[in-house]
Amino acid sequence: MAAPAHRHSQNLHVTTVRDFEALAAHAPAWDRLAWEAPQKVPMLLPAWVEVSLRHGLNHGEEWLCSFAYLGEELIGILPIILTPDPILGKGWPTLRMADKHSQSGDMLLAPDHAAMAFQSLLGGLRREVPTHLGLELKAVRRNSPLWAAIRNSDIGYITRCGSRQRYSCLSLGQDFDAYLGTLGNMRRNLKRYMRKLESRGDVSVEMMRGSAATEDFLEEFLALEASGWKGRAGSAILNKPDAVAFYTALVRNFAADERLEWHAIRVQGRLVAAEMGFRCGPSLMLPKIAFDEDFKDCMPGNLLTAEVIKDALSRADLTEINHLSQADWHRSWHLESDEYIALYFVWKDILPVMFLLSRVFLVSRAGAMSPYKAHVKSWIPKPAKTAYRQMRSACGQFRRILS
Predict the structure, then answer these.
(1) Domain made up of 173-318: CATH architecture
(2) Average model confidence (pLDDT) for the chain?
(3) Which residues of 107-119 are buried (b: 16+ CB within 10 A; e: fewer)?
(4) Contact between residue 191 and residue 197 where contact means Cβ atoms under 8 Å apart
(5) Which of residues 5 and 325 earns the better pLDDT score?
(6) How does pLDDT run across 333-353, given as a tens digit for each residue?
(7) By C-alpha distance, which of 60, 55, 70 is closest to 9?
(8) Which of 31, 189, 220, 282 suits a disulfide with 319, CB 3.0-4.6 Å?
(9) Given this model, what pLDDT does residue 403 score?
């Protein structure tokens, strides 16, 4: 028999922390909840969030993290970055859940208690930062418990969907040969590329995971990435000191938990292709890949992708590869995709509506009503509307007389 709702509310409490020592005290329960979450994205894990809060903030930003407990059970986590408003300043921040290096920023909620956790965390947020304008969530996956929580909650915010992305992924439930059979000439091309690569010297493939995947490989990976077009374009990790600090700490954290993976191909010991991977539950996220352009005629990136997919399809601990990105080369592999949506919560008050809602509408879906019609017009008292119409009519008559 389910416990009465009033008993749940009596046992429900929210704790908010603002320092890393206090944050670490919640990590074991947090890690279990994130590892089992249906979204299966590593940005939910404390190993990622801790790095995000240390190395992902811009100048002038602060952070806090709230935890919702039902008795002793952790049912929700809300890590927040406080961003000063460009006009109103630090006293009226916008809150966001993803730093500049992270691909997704979702709220972690226990599926069985999603609405309860969601409402309690937002209530705690209003107590901690009563003058915040709103909350921004980046790339929330369609299977997130947050969507059900929003439908089942009255939260006091205007909720808007922003940009929609379809990120590439691959469900792992078939034989590798059968999978290659769906890719047209890919099997034949891979054999041709491998023969060409082998003509350059002895080829070795490395699949490093568990204790074999360490932070020591990061320096070699970063050098390979920076040697190619990303380095020339200024988008390689090595081009940005803050990104170097972020990924160094991230790799260290995931290696310590044995959830880091490195995939590599070498020719005569020389690294010609490499990929970075992070585990969350049965999903393997692959955010970064690099190859040596001196070997581009051998397509080392494609050869490495084939080896990674082949290895993943043979593993009982994986059900999904997730790139959390979309690229032209993904189409060659007939990858699936899943939808990720940006979410905005604007507090129902004058300043948030004036200063944040208009910006939200600029990035919201096309064809939506204007902010005035959607959310402001209904707040205006009827006598004020009548007086405005009468004044507007009188002004119109006066202009006609003058003309």
Answers:
(1) 3-Layer(aba) Sandwich (3.40)
(2) 91
(3) bbbbbebbbbbbb
(4) no
(5) 325
(6) 999 999 999 999 999 888 888
(7) 70
(8) 282
(9) 56
User: What tokens does 349 get?
Assistant: 């008050």
Sequential DSSP letters for 87-134: TTEEEEEEEES--TT-S-B--EE-GGGHHHHHHHHHHHHHHHSTT--E
Residue-wise pLDDT tens digits, 292-322: 999 999 999 999 999 999 999 999 999 999 9
Among candidates 237, 280, 242, which has minimal Cα distance to 260?
280
Here the tokens at position 357 are 């809602």
Burial category of 369 from C-beta neighbours within 10 Å (exposed 0-12, middle 13-18, buried 19 and up): exposed
> Alpha-carbon distance 242 to 224, whole Å?
18
Instruction: Report which secondary-structure segment, H or E, holds 170.
Output: strand 157-171
Top CATH class of 5-165+340-379 equals alpha beta
Which pLDDT score is estimated for 64? 98
Domain ranges of the chain: 5-165+340-379, 173-318
CA distance 321 to 316: 13
